[in-house]
Structures are given as C-alpha cells and as structure tokens.
Design goal:
The complex is a heterodimer of chains A (284) and B (407).
Chain A (H helix, E strand, L loop, with lengths): L1 H9 L2 H30 L3 E2 L6 E2 L5 H8 L1 H35 L2 H12 L6 H12 L4 H6 L11 H25 L3 H9 L4 H30 L2 H6 L5 H9 L3 H24 L7
Antiparallel strand pairs in A: 1-2
Helix pairs in contact in A: 4-8, 4-10, 8-10, 9-10, 10-13, 12-13
Chain B lengths: L1 H36 L23 E6 L6 H11 L2 E6 L3 H9 L5 E4 L1 H9 L3 E2 L23 E2 L2 E2 L2 E7 L1 E5 L11 H4 L1 H4 L6 E4 L4 H12 L13 H15 L2 E5 L2 H9 L5 E4 L1 H9 L4 E3 L12 E11 L5 H11 L2 H11 L2 E2 L13 H4 L11 E3 L18 H12 L1
Parallel strand pairs in B: 1-2, 1-3, 9-10, 9-11, 13-15
Antiparallel strand pairs in B: 3-13, 4-13, 5-6, 7-13, 7-14, 8-11, 8-12
Helix pairs in contact in B: 3-4, 7-8, 8-14, 9-10
Classes of the chains: A mainly alpha (284), B alpha/beta (407).
Amino acid sequence: MGRRLAGLFYHRPKLQLGALLAAPMAWLVLLYLGALAILLITAFWTVNPLSGTVIKEFSLENFEELVNVPVYREIVWRTVRTAVLVTLTDAIIAFPIAFYMAKVAGRRGKAILVIAVLMPLWSSYLVKVLAWREIIAEHGIINWGLGPLGLHGPGEGLVAVWLVFTYLWLPYMVLPIFAGLERIPNSLISASEDLGASPFTTFRRVILPLVFPAVVAGSIFTFSLTLGDYIAPKLVSNEQFIGTSIFASITNNQPFAAAFALVPIVIVIAYLGVARRLGAFEHV
Amino acid sequence: MRRDVHSARTAWLIAAGLVAFMLVLAGCGGGSSSSTGGGGEGEGGGGASGELQKLGKGEGEVNLISWAGYVEPEWVKPFEAKTGCKVNDKVAGTSDEMVQLMETGQYDGVSASGNATARLWAAGQVSPVNTALVPNYKTVFADLKEQPYNTFEGVPYGIPHGRGANLLMWNSEKVKPAPDSWEITMNPKVAAKYKGHISQYDDPMSIAEGAIYLKAHDPKLGIESPYELTEEQFNAAVQLMKEQKANVGEYWGSAEKQIAGFANGSNLVGTTWQYQYFALKGEGEPMAASPASQGFLPKEGATGWSDTWMISSKAKHPNCMYMWMNWIIEPKVNAEVAEFFGEAPAQELACEHTKNPNFCKEYHAEEPAFWKRVYYWQTPLAECSEGGPEECMDYNQWVRAWTEIKG
C-alpha cells in the first residue's frame, strides 16, 4: 500500500507538491484570507440601533462615518504619529546596541547581548505593560526618583504610551539591524578608513547605506505592531487609538469595527510598499 | 525577465482566485446565519422559544455572565452542592460587553442592567421568565416587579437581583473637605483642583452623570430623565463631559483597573461601584463615599442600577438557570449577596437574614420614595416615554458622543 502510494506520487510531481502544500495553504486561505474577506464584507453591513443585531445589507454608512466624523481622523492621525515616533526612537536606541553587538563585542559578549535582547520576549506582554503602569504611577519609581528634584513624571498619557511601545518593540528593531550589520565585512570599514574617511563619513557613506534595508525591515515590526495594539494604550492612557476604537466598537457595532479595521490594513500595505522601494525585502 | 512577468501573473491569478473563492464562501455563510438568526430582527422579537413550562432535572452546569461581585464562592458553592449545577461565570465590564457575550449563544443567563435588557429583548436573545417556576419571586419588592426595564409587552423577562446607586468615591486623606456633590468631578472649576486624578467610568452611560449634574445646576435646560435627552440637553451634557476630560486621570473599564488606580495613588476621586469601594476599604485604603445614611447619594442624586437575571433564548441549561434565578433571591442568599456587594436586596424577606440588623434600613431597601433619586441605567431610545420630550437622542448617538468626548 505504502509502496503503491509512493509510486503514485513519484510519477506525478504536481500531485506531490499539492499534497505537501495542501495543509499550509488551507490554513492560509481559510483562516487568514478567509477572515480578511469576512472582515471586508462585514464592513459594508450595519446594525439595528436598538437591538444591536447586524443588518446584512450593503451600505456605505460606516465608511461615511469614518470619513466625516472628525474624531476618527484624529484617532487615525494620533495612531500613525505615535507609530512613527516609536519607530524612530527604537531605531535610534537600537542602532548603537546592534553596532556594539555586531562589531565590537567579543564572541561571549555577543552571545550574552543577544540573550539579553531576547530575554524580554520570554515574559508575557501583559506583565510588561502592567509593570510600566506601576512604574509611571503616582507612587511609582519615576516619581520617586524625580521627587527630590522637584519634578514630576509624565503620568498616564501619550508620553507613557510612547515609552511603553518603545520598550516593548525594541528587540524587533535590534535584531534585524544586528543581522544587517553582521553582514557588512569589516574589510569595507577598514578600506574606508585607509582611504582617509573620518569615522563619521564611514558611518554615513558606508555603513548606513548598507544597513538601511535592515532598519526599514525592523521598522515594519515597530510600526505595524504599534498601529494595531490596543491593550497598552488602554492600560497606560486614556487616549484613543485605532486599536482601542475598534475594541470599543466590537461590543456594540461590529460592522463599524470591521470598517475601522480596514484603515490600519491600508496604512500597513502603503508602508510595505514604501519599505519595498527602500529595499527592505532584498537581502534580509 | 519574461519568466518573472509570467510567474507574477500566475501569482496574481491565484490570489484573485482565492479571494473570489472566499467571497463565495463568506456569502454562503452570511446567508445561512442570517436565516437562522432572523427571528430576532423584527420589532421586539421576544424569546423565540417561549418560556419554560415545567422545571426538570438540572443539566449539571450553568454558564453565567455577571457583574463583578455577583457570583461569588460564598453562595455559588452551596448552590452547586444543592442542585448539582456547576456554575461557570464570566465577569463583564460593561453592558455592551454583556450584550455581545449573549449573542454568542454560549451562555444561559446574564445579570443585565437596564441599559442592556431592552436591547437583549429586542434582539431576541432572552426568553420570558415563567415566574411560577421561581417560588421566591412572590416576595420580591413590588416596586421592582413589572418595570419597563424587566417587563416587555406585559411579560416578565427576568428576576430582579438587587439595586443601588453608583457611588462618588474619594481618598479621604487627600480630598478635603469631603465632597457632597458631583461638582467635584463635573464642575470644571472645582474639578481642576484634582486635575489628572479623577476617575470616570469608561462607558457612554457616564453622559447621564453629566445630565444629572446639569439637571440640578442648570434648570433652564429642563432635564427630567438623564436618559431621555433632547438634542439641546444632550449637547450640553456632552460639552460638560468634554470639559471634564481635561481633569480626568483615568477612564476605567474594569473594576480591577480602577482598584489598582486608587491603590497606587494615581486616582483620588471618581465614580465607582460598591464592589471597588469595599474591596479598597478591605485592603485598608483610606476610601470614603457619601454616607450610607444618605444612601451613598451626593446631593444631586446618582445614576444607579436595578439588575435583572435574564435567561438566554438559546440556553442549553434552562433548568439550572431557573434554579439559579430562584437561588439568587432566596432570602438568606439574597441577604448575603446584598451585604457582600453593598446594595439593597431585591427580596423582601432578605431583610430578616442580614448580618447587620439595620442593613435594609441603611440601604433604604424598603423605601420606594428614596429610589426616585436614583436614576437606573436604561437604554436611551429615540422614542421617549410618555410625557417626556418629543424626540430623544438614541444609544448610537450616545456611543458616538462618548468617542468624541474621549477625543
């Protein structure tokens, strides 16, 4: 039986490929694309204002509301702004760490640093956000440290959201940059020095262009993760983001939530388009 | 190069094919689910399955949705031992969440507040209750029976659980003098003193708190019920809440979040429920609320709730649910529930079983006149009640306004 089956597959390479890919393709199509398709369809439905029951009739109402009510534009703009800010901050913080790991640290030091960067990913996301909630609280460590100087920490709010996201997604920025830097041969840096370039010029004209696609690759993580998150903003601020608005609508108006969920998808697709142009997908 | 173009085209074709396939599949799915769920879409669908006629044997378990503090081991364990119905409880933070959980059809019952009951009924999510199968119902306070939030078209749809007012709570060490009015959170000038330390419930129902404040302090607006607002009254309340935002430190969506905020000192004053107040006091935090002798009410009155246990129209364990509804208003149990949570019991006979002999007096359980100053949560509807304004702002407008208030 087994041999006959093997024989059947041996002469039919297409069947072989089909059998191999059937399970992952089913997963991708049914669970991933299927969910997206349902989301897209639901976005055109509405709800009965009293009962909250979904009315399955085509309508552009949700999109009109998204475009016409100023508060939603503001929420989208705030979310994008935060995502960009978090991405830039992470890039600035991650670069020196990654550079040290890739070019300066010895073998042992490198291993320890990689583990140190990965370590936060081993603990629960929620624990980390809740820890931050305590850090920025009125009686938290920030105010404890700043108190004697007559200063007061940021408390809950946009600044707290920015701090927490920057902390949460930092490893996702460090690792791609580290990988990108490791691929740059040291001889290129030596050659640049031999030709008389200052360290800054070497950085600007040799290292940065070579590692830039890796930075862009890392930014895809930090940007899209910030764009979609709803738990951290809820826990450390009162500000509404795309994610928190979707979460709030899910309980009383799923079609509107679905329509709103398409906004970050469109933004991320646009972002991926830009990232592709910047070469993020070429060697990483 | 040509090969690349060719493979790209193939990839697009595959992708397009997949999307088309999914659309067809989703279309079928949508169609079939709309035909099964269609029963509830008419006006006031009511329970499609009708009420239970005869109580049978327990099914071994019951799945509940409740407010924090309603389903506690103290009275759940004896219930399980007596009936053999294992209780699985899901705590919800808001009425919207309760409505959505009920839509899943996985729950047998819910402790719904007045801003959820009408919606659950209109969506056909709940069944009428055959009160003959709930012997303890006879001695429920008369002014809790046949109310617009638990009886529809003359048919009872639930069993009253208890009632109370939402509290104004403050940190007695930091907030002095003790407030006796919502002014401390609602009047921008007074609230500015506690800027960044005010705690407000994250729910459209909070707009009603603004309306109660305006009812007392801006009589020109002519507000009667804080849930039946004309456009002008509504806009004034929304404006007030927008001004309040500058002073709010935290909008809380779950009891745990608020408890943590008060415990770590970030929050000093705000709206709360009895559950958080007693939990914080239990931990030795310096919390205070309007005195029990005033029914916890600041001078303007307060929003409140009169909650109802409703049975799902899709209940898989209806017998256990009926046993639960009878159990929760058993005199001894209802006394325990009321004292644990800090609310007025629904059961008349519960007053004889409270540990504190004056409990019912302190919570005004037997004084219908007192409850006139407590505005039970209800769903804002476009059609106002008789004698009210001509046209009212409906719940969707409340929800949108709440998003705009938070900015």
